[in-house]
Amino acid sequence: MDRPDPKKLFVKSYGCQMNVYDAQRMADVLAPEGFVETQAMEEADIVILNTCHIREKAAEKVYSELGRVREMKKARNAAGHDTKIVVAGCVAQAEGVEIVRRSPAVDLVVGPQNYHRLPDLLKQAEQRRGVIDTDFPVEDKFSVLPLPSAKKTLARGVSAFLTVQEGCDKFCTFCVVPYTRGAEVSRDTDAILREARNLAEAGVREITLIGQNVNAWHGADEKGGVSTLGALLERVAAIPGIARLRYTTSHPRDMDDSLVAAHRDLPQLMPYLHLPVQSGSDSILDAMNRKHTRDDYLRLIDRIRAVRPDIALSSDFIVGFPGETDRDFEDTMDLVRQVGFAAAYTFKYSERPGTPAAELTAQIPEHVKNDRLYALQALVAAQQKAFNAATVGKTIDVLIEKPGRDPGQWMGKSPWLQAVILDEPCRAGDIVPVEITAIGTNSLHGRIAGPVRSAHLS
Ligand code: 5AD
Ligand code: SF4
Predict the structure, then answer these.
(1) Are 126 and 157 part of one and the same domain?
(2) Where does ligand 2 bind, in terms of residues with CB under 6 Å?
(3) What is the Å distance from ligand 2's center to 278 Cα?
(4) pLDDT band with cut points at 50, 70 and 90 for residue 1
(5) Closest residue by Cα to residue 76 from 23, 141, 27, 10
(6) Residue 168 CA to ligand 2 centre (angstroms)
(7) pTM, whole model, 2 decimals?
(8) Residue 406 domain flag
(9) Which domain holds residue 193?
(10) pLDDT band at 384; cut points 50, 70, 90
């Protein structure tokens, strides 16, 4: 007898790495239900929009995307293919019932803490449209989610994300995350190690531990005490096959001594740190409720560079926070000049309803925000270019990830998260020494300069 065609699932993710990870886990939880992923929305029986709420107009973008998805659903339904629309992620959490009110074609709204219940929620959605689950459940979704097969894991690439922590208690005055993702929760050490081993056994070579506040992670150590992220990294580094480790996103307040020491002691821990500072002005940092000063940040960078001089730094910046003067902005520019970043994400402040900063009266005019954003972007672009240019002529280790865009090309990553393009045959998962010959806009180009240093085992 012919097997029925598998049902198809299309997930579109917006925003941060947490959403990329969540999208994969949603696919994992639906795999036993007979769903396979597709890259084409038009052939999907379930369309999930995995949304992000961090900046302005996020919800409006979702509603306009839903307009398009609704048309597709109508066409598929008319052709006799039942199609379900699911809204997941932080907009789902923040908007809840409003989504089905404004977009009646939506079958299910599910928050980031509830997607382990997708099979059950979809069954409910068979009975009635507009099922909503945005509770913060008592059970831990991770303990319920299945681990993907080795084949599926490797199909996702030799570099994987692993969520170790979720939520945030920091309440920066501009930010919605503490409201949408809830309080800080750390995953259990054993569960993390089990998942990391599963990744390694499948052939994954690089793991990035992720969390909204990843360095706030804490868990039980082997002796029943409390361990922090530095100790966790050490235990993940000991797993055979894991050649590279990273973690993101960190808060300056949670960079403890053990984490700084990990940068000194663990060769697997890559010399790249994303450490958002947001502003270089003390009065703005205070108004943002960051609970660190400019000087705290600079001294922290000194401590990290003292143990790992080749570390590359990246950061997030917000310009035009309410009350930001020319002088405050100049302090930000000055901090950037002092630190020297390899990369940075720059944002114009956007008002998020319900956050304390949205109540502040001294909002900055749009044209001032634009001017500051351009100035800051020009500065960080120049720093990034200089950082990349400094690799030309050097030989660096590259983890080969996948074929490049052109035939015969391969793409990998440097220890400093730069994309490296090669025009030679390679094997995903190998780490090869590459002499950098040129820099492009978003990548480095190079040629293999020696034998494979560390081979993909499977
Ligand atoms: N306006 C502008 N940028 C924001 N971010 C978070 N909230 C806002 C906001 N209201 C930025 C911060 C954060 C990054 C993920 O998004 O820089 O680190
Ligand atoms: Fe938002 Fe601040 Fe928490 Fe980062 S630390 S998620 S910016 S509240």
Answers:
(1) no
(2) 168, 170-172, 175, 177-178, 212-213, 251
(3) 10
(4) very low
(5) 10
(6) 6
(7) 0.92
(8) yes
(9) 147-259
(10) very high
